[in-house]
Design a protein that fits this description.
369 residues; Rossmann fold; six-stranded parallel β-sheet
Length: 369
């Protein structure tokens, strides 16, 4: 029983695969279950999936940007090379199925699987699928979706299950979250994160109003690895009042343990609108303020955000409207209306589908049997 996973080379593609892998191992522990991953080089797949016992094989993958870039010329060449690499690995691994999480990084492996007549399953996180997923959907036996009204795909192939999340995020903390973050606990706590890489525009907005922000709120802020040193240094300067520094807690990246503790103790989440973030926020039942990434492919983050806000689970601020003091006033307004925050939390919980990873794992095992 061999399964090859493939995906786009970002944390948003890797975390759902981690969730599915864990569920597969819980359901079936036999030695004949062998799991592999084919995808472009990135730290998320190598570190996270290797840690789950998945054998990672790196292949080239090309990203076709919808704007002029010299990188497009180089990336076009990567696609056929990556497909040949994937063909080689799939031929010798001889998997029973290939499971694609979508994204440009998945295309070479799925193309090679198509040539070799290996059954393909696809999961699409967003309402608006990207180009790779649209092409792959024509070859997939089944297409798992996160949102009920996902576009483009044929209805007879779609199974709406939600976005796979790591069940461990929902488990009991085992340790007091306040101790982990050194929280003061006497102000509303806001968790701010812009995806695995952080978000420069969100970071800039936070820094501009940071003294006013920590006067009323306590902040856990995932800045992104590349931005951490600069944000931390600027924050030290911005917060001149020594007594307020203890209310700001910047981190380059929140690992699984830190993230679940931050989710547990926060009163509101400020986030980008990737499907992974939305479904994790929903699973923990937290109100949120979403700031969609304006450059996301097919503008999928904007559509994800408004779909989530339509059911009353979140407020949306588009980046073109992200002005520091407007953002601050929006936060103050929300916390002045605890009834609104409570309704948002309830709507988020009702929207959640925390068993998505288990459903997909069961489906794959049933197919293999």
């Amino acid at each position: 029983m061999k399964i090859v996973f493939t995906g786009g080379g970002t944390a948003g593609h890797t975390f759902p695969i981690v969730a599915i892998v864990r569920e597969l191992k819980k359901i079936y522990s036999g030695p004949e279950l062998k799991l592999f991953y084919l995808g472009p080089k990135d730290k998320y797949s190598l570190t996270l999936l290797s840690g789950e016992g998945v054998m990672v094989k790196k292949i080239l993958a090309g990203k076709l940007r919808r704007y002029f870039s010299l990188k497009n010329f180089l990336d076009i060449l990567k696609i056929p090379i990556g497909t040949l690499q994937a063909f080689f690995w799939l031929f010798f691994l001889a998997p029973d199925v290939v499971f694609s999480k979508g994204g440009y990084g998945s295309f070479p492996a799925v193309m090679a699987a198509r040539i070799l007549h290996i059954p393909i399953f696809l999961h699409e996180s967003d309402i608006s699928p990207g180009l790779a997923a649209k092409i792959e959907s024509k070859w997939a036996l089944e297409i798992f979706t996160s949102f009920p009204k996902t576009r483009f795909f044929p209805k007879e192939k779609m199974i709406c299950v939600g976005n796979p999340i790591r069940e461990e995020i929902l488990k009991d903390m085992g340790v007091e979250p306040k101790k982990i973050f050194n929280l003061q606990g006497n102000k509303p706590l806001i968790l701010i994160f812009g995806g695995s890489q952080g978000a420069r525009s969100i970071n800039e907005t936070i820094l501009e109003i940071l003294p006013e922000l920590v006067a009323d709120f306590e902040i856990i802020h995932q800045t992104g690895q590349r931005n951490f040193s600069r944000v931390k240094a600027e924050a030290e300067v911005m917060i001149s009042e020594q007594s307020l520094k203890k209310y700001y807690h910047p981190f380059p990246f929140l690992n699984e343990n830190y993230l679940k503790n931050a989710f547990f103790c926060c009163d509101l989440v400020v986030s980008r609108a990737g499907a992974g973030s939305i479904f994790e926020i929903a699973a923990v039942g937290k109100p949120s303020l979403l700031i969609p990434l304006p450059t996301s492919a097919q503008n999928h983050q904007l559509e994800n955000a408004y779909a989530f806000s339509k059911i009353g689970a979140a407020e949306v601020i588009e980046e073109k409207n992200l002005r520091p003091h407007f953002f601050l006033e929006k936060l103050k307004y929300l916390f002045s209306r605890p009834d609104i925050l409570q309704k948002m939390a309830e709507a988020a919980k009702n929207f959640s589908r925390p068993k998505a990873a288990k459903i997909i794992a069961c489906y794959l095992l049933e197919y293999l049997k």
